[in-house]
Fold each of these.
Amino acid sequence: MQSLFPGSSSELSYEDLTELYDYPSHGVWVRANFVSTLDGAVQGADHKSGSLSSKADKRVLGLLRSVADVVVIGANTARVEDYQPVKSTDRRTHIRQRLGLGPGPAMAVVSRSLDVDAALLGGGTAPTLVITTESSPSDRRAQISERAPVIIAGETSVDFAKAVDLLAEQGFARILCEGGPTLMHDVVSSGRLDELCLTWTPVIASGNALRLTDGPAIKPPYQLHLKQLLEEDGELFARYARE
Ligand SMILES: NC(=O)c1ccc[n+]([C@@H]2O[C@H](COP(=O)([O-])OP(=O)(O)OC[C@H]3O[C@@H](n4cnc5c(N)ncnc54)[C@H](OP(=O)(O)O)[C@@H]3O)[C@@H](O)[C@H]2O)c1
């Protein structure tokens, strides 16, 4: 992998990438990560994102997880993609120790229905959190809270800005949102997105796949600026951030 912006012809090592993708040293930072076709599809023909993802994209995703405190996902992505808690690997442990981070990252599932697979609630190196609303089914909430910490962040809809504040209070300052598009719409609309890591896979798929966000128009459009552009085998790895 090499950097096109800022330009450099040298091959980036895993250590270089860790440095490039590390979070700011202070404050809460919300990063989102997506893979997209050139025509904006974030789902493959099988309605999953894995079929769009290359080896290099998986490497970047693994790295983004390694430097995060928490991975936030929408419950539908968790269901469709059969999400599991993030497991530790020697490389992940090494990176986290080097950066002074504890075991993890934790998973945090955003759900109103609380239809969350039990397998996602335990077995990771850090506890899974469930972020929900006051109006979520109380019996289900009671069951889940026996296995996983539950965060209430809104009446009938999770208020993402509030969820970020509550996560930060609990020590989760390095936030990685892995989508999907419904949740991402709320993330962007909340005004709390600091950075988007976007992999452009060089295919055109057409069809009616979802885009990066799914929801009403965001007005004015959310402005981001290109901070970094990496390339491997024709695939582009962009980082856009707020000024
Ligand atoms: N290309 C990529 O990088 C990428 C990344 C992620 C996902 N995807 C794809 O995107 C698709 C899934 O996306 P999606 O938009 O359907 O689902 P999603 O955003 O993953 O999840 C939507 C669900 O999350 C919960 N939710 C989201 N916002 C909420 C809020 N403000 N308050 C309460 N609950 C909230 C609700 O869960 P409940 O239904 O449980 O109430 C809602 O139905 C899949 O095909 C997946 O493969 C692609």
Amino acid sequence: METNKHPGDEVPPETAQSGKLPCGTCQGSGVKDGKPCPNCGGTGEITVLVGDA
Ligand SMILES: [Zn+2]
């Protein structure tokens, strides 16, 4: 099954207990060097596993 996971994501967006953080590569802008950020796929945020701490 295809997911919306981007290179910078730790886990697929549909993962339980995941959260969004600003992408460090594009500083959350979604644009890197005038092009959609390859790390976050142009969304400006990455999905990380936050757990239940
Ligand atoms: Zn980015």
Amino acid sequence: MLQTEFETAPEGAATALELVALRRQIDALELRFSQLAASFDASRYWDYDCSNSAMDWIRFNCRMTSTAAADRISVGRHLPKLVESAEAMGTGDIGFAHVTVIARTANTVKSFDETALLPLAKENSPGMFHYKCLHYRHSLDAKAYTDDQERLAEERSLRLSTAEDGCLLISGVLDPVGGAVVRAALEPLAQPSGAHDDRNREQRMADALVEQVTDGKPANIQVTATIETLKGLAGAAGGEMEFSLPICATSIQRMACECSVTRVLLSQESVTIDVGRSKRVISSGLSRALKARDGHCRWPGCERSASMCDGHHLVHWINGGPTDLDNLVLLCRRHHRMVHEGGWQLIKTEHQKIVTIAPTML
Ligand SMILES: [Zn+2]
Ligand SMILES: [Zn+2]
């Protein structure tokens, strides 16, 4: 009977059992490793062996990260106070990852009591348990928790540098509050939107950052290009923009299409000229009418709000397209880019429906 059940079990069932059993054995070894790590720390052999600390010695000799080594020493140190936690780990009710969180919490509070945390550990995943332990720490000592947050805020930094190819490199650390503000602003904008959204999460976050920074308003940037560049003629130089290397003609065309960027157009002799300004500028009245008519990005399936959209000329004004309601549609920044730089085509049907044609189909 048992044999029959095993034979009909879904593929992977035996592996699932083995994974759980193996993890319990590994956890038991981790606990033993932690005990040894703490006694090694107390022995100060690491000092005799010319290391700065037991953590450093373990990190180097046991091929571990600093955090992993520190966690093991911490678990080992607190283990005499973690009798019930060790028992719960032995029966599989919690994992070594939970014990690590308990030990980290014991490091930071004075009157530590494992019985207050153990029920939470049994109910929650290690990640969620870590979160709940932070609440526990705050409830025991709000002042110490505040001091910790202040220390984290002091470590904030943001570095911007331009790579040789013109890309902006961003690196930095934000304190939990600042980080949460950034996440709250970017996450809604980073959701997949509209048809044909094949961007990965990192690409969507990058787009969300640019979109958020411009806050739905045109960026206050000056773009300089010749008429030849704007028309995309062969042999024309690239366009110029503050803080950027030369940019391609299709990007210039996109920025010129949404007429509100500050623009200086140059003739080939580098004389500033103004091409059909009265024809291309979307007046505030026309902009209001466009937003009221379209309501949001007109790309099929995209609902990015009107305030985050550009007015796109179906026939570019540089090619004689009029700046009027009939020739304009709202497009969010990403879809506007897909049309100009990506080569997608937008067709308006007689029923005012917008249809997209992929570049490969043209
Ligand atoms: Zn456009
Ligand atoms: Zn869109």
Amino acid sequence: MPKTDVHIEASVKKTGKPHQAVHAFVDFEKKKPERHDITKMVDYTRMIESKYGAEAAQEFVQHIHDDIQCKFKDFIGTLKKRAGELSNGDTAQVPVGSKLNTLVSEAESKLKGILDYFGVVEGKNVRLYRVADEDVELLRRAGVNADDIQHCLAVAAKALEIAHRTGAALDFELIGRGALFHDLGKSKTHAIEHGRLGAEMGKDLGLPTAITDIMEKHIRGGLTEAEATELGLPVKDYRLKSFEEKIVIYADRLVDIIMDGVVKTDEEAEQRYEEILTAQIKYGKNDITLKRYLGYHREIQALMGNS
Ligand SMILES: [Fe+2]
Ligand SMILES: [Fe+2]
């Protein structure tokens, strides 16, 4: 399979540009198989296009294409070599049928390795997700104002971007819709009750429990029973369990820092996250909340291979 620098070289030859970021993303050592997963190509293409532009997205598809071609050329080469070895050499005494069986089982296991690498697995269900216009319309009709809708859309885009960058098998629909609807309750109030009120509205709208859970639990990144008591909210355990929930909360914080102009770029928001949340009470709230927010940041960055 072409090494990253070979991809870059081919890219320069074909397009005049190296598209280094694209090839580095796909060949990122710790996430290689996930990033070559063809069932994630549409999601990755969207993410790359929004970050680096249409030419970069095209280069991503070219990269996967070249890898598939290379892996299968290599596969045929190995088969030919093994067939040659088996038809003469020190296995001359072995019956033809047995040699063929050896060849077929070797080919099978090599082929399975290739298919696994590109994410082709028996019975796998492909689920693509993108923010639906009808969902945005639901927010508008519920009375969420234009600024808050813009915030919800930004949180959904950021959460999906982060989710894709982890390369993990996550529920993108839950992340995208959970993020989009997390502040639905702001149509009623911007006070701390907007989580609970939003979840109630979500239930009335027929949203799945996993989504209304995110809406209810997003306040201060998932309160304990003791904190809920102190804040006068219905007493229960609001703590977050899944990566899907944590990614929405992390994206919500990042979007606040970015939209408020505390940082100049999205990258800077992640790099200076700990420093900003620790220094500014507006974002870190209090010690216990800050600790949670920093915990999610570290966990998710580690999942992206940035620990
Ligand atoms: Fe909120
Ligand atoms: Fe929010």
